[in-house]
Amino acid sequence: MEGEIDHRSTRRDFTHGELHQRDLDSNPFQQLATWLAAATSAGNFDATAMVLATADASGRPDARYVLLKHFDEAGLCWYTDQRSQKGQELTANPYAALVFYWPENDRQVRVNGAVEPLDDAAAESYFQQRPSRSRYSAAASIQSQVIASRADLEARVLALQQRYPDDNVPRNPAWGGYRLIPERFEFWQGRRDRLHDRFVYRRPENHPSEWTIERLMP
Predict the structure, then answer these.
(1) All domains in the chain, ordered by first residue
(2) Closest Cα partner for 14 from 94, 101, 96, 87?
(3) What sections of 42-84 are H helices per DSSP?
(4) Out of 5, 13, 142, 144, which could bridge 84 as a Cys pair, Cβ 3.0 to 4.6 Å?
(5) Which of 194, 202, 203, 215 is catalytic?
(6) Residue 76 assigned ligand-binding role
(7) How far is CA 213 from CA 20, 74, 176, 198, 210, in A?
């Protein structure tokens, strides 16, 4: 590539809404559920997509999109191959950050906290809910490992289909789930002139079952 690619003049204003503390639910999980439903209603077909940011043992960060699969007040859950890069990083450093962005509503949600693996029963339950082809793909892949060609990857899937022809391919024990246990939520609403609305929920150390809400400057 020759020369600089300049996007300093690329911008748009945010005009979809505003956010006041009186609009917020006292429970950040309920607030997340409300905004997630609104994003889906606004036409976002990947509303559950979230950036998962992790760091290795030396603190070097990495990030990728994963899909939120379920959540309650215990935490936010997703599934993956635990042999993957993110799985290895979470083993070495079991803390992470999640980010949702819904441009249809000019909204962003950030969530930070400790991460724990889900038990085998949860992983098995979700694995069996997946479409047949997705189960074969997950069983055939050692996620993030080098493979020589696409043909080799497809051959691994075909071998499993021949070995387990009745859609009963077993879940590899390394394929499982994770739960992020939130310590902090931030809800961001884009506003005109970059004067955005930002509110953070935190758990006070002396009252860990409660949440405080504070406005942040943009």
Answers:
(1) 21-130+174-216 (2.30.110.10)
(2) 101
(3) none
(4) 144
(5) 194
(6) no
(7) 11, 19, 33, 10, 10
